[in-house]
Amino acid sequence: MVNEWAFHIIRNVLRLPVGAMIRKVHFDGTEHFKEGVPVLIASTHPNSFFDGVVFEHMSRRRVYTLARGDAFAKPFANYMLRSMRILPIFRARDADPKTARSGNARTMDELFERFKLKHGILIFTEGVAYPEKSLLPLKNGTGSIAAEMAKRSNHEMDLYVVPTALNYTSFWPNMFKTIHVTYHKPIRVKDYREMIENNERDFIKMVTAKVQDAFDESFVVTKGEFTEEKEFVHDLMVNENYESIPFKINNRWKLSIAKANAMNSDLAEKVRKYMSSLNQAKVLDSNVGNRGFDYLSALIALITFGISFPIFLVWSLLFKLNDRFVKRKFRNIVFRDAVKVGIGSGHAMLLILGLVILTAVFLPHHWWVWTLIPVALYGAICWFRVVEALPHLWKELKWRGMDDKEQDSLRSMRQEIVSALQ
């Protein structure tokens, strides 16, 4: 086990780009992410290394992430990744058979020690990531690890496998995202001692099947039939669950993702009709659904205008340069969001350093000015939130000017869709 200094540094640096890019984070079923026991989180994997950030830096729980083994090939990378609470798991294509076996054996030893300390381990059951709203075939690694830990502890370890669906509203190049995490009823491994001892393969298949069922229930799938309609419904569900003030929202998600995934032609027709009516009226679903507005962020942005707005302008330019660089240098779209966050962390450190230097040079005797640096940075984040909400505010003026009959017609169409998802 290596020192985790890098994790603590990066966790704090990530607050800036994540705060600018992420609109809201929903955590549901948090009672299933048990405390005081070892937990193996079996999650979907739609967005590369960004997925680990959600659990390691936003869930406020001690979580270690399993990642592809070939990323640990060089000693420096191996040390840095481990110091960020990332551990290797080798697939057949990640290394030669001897290296993969020895690497996985070491990882199993580390996992066993982490589980004894009642830490959480994050595994991506799909095995690979791809930034789209679809499920890839699940691998059997989750059940294999659970069975291995049970055998190593002589079935004394009270390990829980928690199927977890991780959703994003969008991927690169869209900057602003809402994240939704659903923890499902955990699988208590001790309850399956007899199955593991008699037929371990059946246990592994059972775990994979339960994880699949959880993903089918709460992972948004828009690829395939009615893609445009399902994408719209996903945004509608986000608007329906929007809360103005909190950044993290626990256990308050409404509407069924499974029903949205199972959209039939009748529901798709209702969605298309509603979308067409919105376009004709030149308003947004957020206006019809009476979505709130983050007045607190707007107030902070305005109060800190003199110091936060210039930082926001510089930061926006850096994000645009970041996008151009990522598009030009990273043809594999799988890593673009993760790279953007990584580069954004570097930009955040440069911004902080620049503010410190400017303050030290021009205001060396005014110590109280130093306290304004975090205020200015948070004010800049608030400006990102205000800019993201501007289309909603602009269309709100149009919505307020419509007559009651038109408003009632749009509300009625929207309610039919919402009712179908309840």
Instruction: Provide the gyration radius in Å.
Output: 23 Å
Percentage of helical residues? 55-70%
Estimate what percentage of residues fall within beta strands.
5-15%
The number of helical elements comes to 17
Poorly predicted ranges: none
Termini separation: 47 Å
Question: Rough shape?
Answer: globular
Care to count the β-strands?
Answer: 9
Q: Kindly state the mean pLDDT as a whole number?
A: 89
By helix and strand content, what is the structural category?
Answer: alpha/beta
Biggest sheet, in brief? Answer: 9 strands, mixed
**What's the helix-strand series?**
HHEEHEHEHEHEEEHHHEHHHHHHHH
Overview of this structure, please?
With 422 residues, the chain is an alpha/beta fold. 57% of the residues lie in helices and 11% in strands. The protein has 17 helices and 9 strands. The chain has helices at residues 5-13, 15-21, 50-58, 75-83, 97-116, 141-152, 193-198, 200-218, 227-240, 257-261, 265-281, 285-288, 295-303, 305-329, 336-362, 372-401, 404-420; strands spanning 22-28, 39-43, 63-68, 86-89, 120-124, 160-168, 177-183, 187-188, 248-250. Strands 1, 2, 3, 4, 5, 6, 7, 8 and 9 form a 9-stranded mixed β-sheet that branches. A hairpin with an 8-residue loop joins strand 6 (160-168) and strand 7. Helix 2 (15-21) crosses helix 15 and helix 14 (305-329) packs across helix 16. The longest helix is centred in the last third of the chain and has 30 residues, at 372-401. The chain is globular. The two termini are 47 Å apart. The mean pLDDT is 89.
Summarize the structure.
The protein has 17 helices and 9 strands.
